[in-house]
UniProtKB/TrEMBL annotation:
Alphabetically ordered keywords of this record: Transferase
Domain Glycosyl transferase family: 196-345
GO molecular function: glycosyltransferase activity
PANTHER family: GLYCOSYLTRANSFERASE
Protein name: Glycosyltransferase involved in cell wall biosynthesis
Keyword Metal-binding included in the entry's annotation: no
Length: 383
């Protein structure tokens, strides 16, 4: 039963601390902010230990001491919070817990898993923890055994997918899912420099040490393109330490603050997204918000906004030469670059958190409506 006629108690389960910026966490916090603004009660749980099959009691002595020390350090310092990279509404509860066992999760109307490991916990919860939802932001076989990951997809949860390719996988598995694309925050990322006023030789790319992010391919593509256009310059940013032996013409910024990152997006004529697989691709979407053209791999940006030769130039994954060719085209062809930047900037405007938040809220209200009707019927029977 809901906590009031129109207000829901909603719990989101994150997989870990939010000390480092993460696109998937950002999506959850955006939903949390939207839902509390709509009058709902929202908590986002951050566990110290994630895996249900790796409890504290199973760890060796050194790992156990490290886990306990981390738990208390984060608890005392609030170091698990995203405050240095994202502003969460003070109305959102932000607990730091030992794990995601039911004892650490409040009773609610809705409980939302956000990663495959969180599903394995949520499926064990009693009904009082809420109707089960699962926001699927990626095919997470890169972080867990394929069979276990797919088993979480088959769990009896309301499934929300953020991209069409994820919905196609669900459909092929015979599963029902709801497609709600990510929204974009146009107050955080916005165009301040006209596209036509930018130096065409200035490029921008997210750097990440995880192999499937394709950073090595992006750097290789830059070096190939620079053989044709020696004036090219590339700015990298990311949460990881600077890559060793950066090529000439490349600079790296570690966790730049919001205003600096927005300025990077507005300085760049072309944004490069070389990933092998992304659930959605927030950085290239942010580049479009800021008026840049994007050269992406098919895995580096969702097809909803990265449409080849309309809003982007798209190349196959793991093909630095093809990516380099698209970078060269965008740099040398001013008319093409400005056309794609303009059309991409216009298209991305439709992806708002208002639109996505209302869609998610509607599904949640529909999910609890039968429970509320049953409770009201019981009350009428007893009167």
């Amino acid at each position: 039963m809901t906590s009031s006629a129109n207000s829901l108690r909603i719990t989101f389960l994150l997989p870990m601390s939010a000390a480092k910026p993460a696109g998937g966490f950002k999506v959850v916090y955006e939903y949390a902010n939207f839902l509390v603004a709509r009058g709902h009660q929202v908590k986002v749980i951050h566990p110290n230990l994630l895996r249900i099959d790796e409890p504290l009691s199973s760890l060796g002595l050194k790992a156990k001491i490290k886990a306990v020390m981390r738990y208390f350090k984060m608890k005392w310092t609030n170091g698990y919070r995203p405050d240095h990279w994202f502003t969460v509404s003070p109305a959102v509860g932000m607990p730091w817990t030992k794990d995601l066992s039911a004892a650490n999760v409040p009773d609610a109307d809705i409980v939302v898993a956000t990663a495959w490991e969180t599903v394995e916990w949520a499926i064990t919860y009693p009904p009082g923890k809420g109707r089960r939802f699962y926001i699927i932001q990626h095919l997470e076989t890169w972080s867990g055994p394929e069979e276990r990951v797919f088993d979480t997809w088959k769990a009896p949860f309301e499934k929300i997918v953020i991209a069409g390719w994820l919905q196609r996988i669900a459909t092929e598995m015979g599963l029902t899912s709801h497609l709600i694309p990510n929204g974009m925050d146009f107050t955080r990322f916005r165009q301040t420099v006209p596209s036509e006023d930018r130096d065409p030789h200035q490029l921008l790319m997210l750097y990440h040490i995880v192999e499937w992010k394709g950073s090595a391919d992006g750097l290789a593509a830059f070096e190939i393109a620079r053989q044709t256009i020696p004036e090219l310059r590339l700015t990298l940013f990311g949460i990881d330490p600077a890559p060793p032996k950066l090529p000439p013409g490349v600079e790296y910024h570690h966790q730049p603050p919001q205003d600096m990152l927005n300025s990077f997006y507005n300085r760049a004529a072309v944004f490069i997204s070389p990933s092998w697989t992304e659930g959605w691709g927030l950085p290239p979407a942010e580049a479009l918000m800021c008026g840049g053209a994007i050269a992406v791999t098919r895995g580096g940006a969702d097809e909803a906004f990265a449409i080849d030769n309309e809003t982007a130039l798209v190349s196959p994954i793991k093909d630095p030469a093809a990516l380099a060719a698209n970078i060269i085209r965008l740099v040398l062809d001013r008319e093409l670059r400005l056309r794609l930047a303009k059309q991409g900037h216009e298209l991305i405007q439709q992806f708002t958190w208002e639109r996505s938040g209302i869609a998610l809220e509607a599904l949640m209200l529909d999910a609890v409506a039968p429970m509320a009707e049953h409770a009201n019927a019981e009350i009428e029977t007893t009167v």
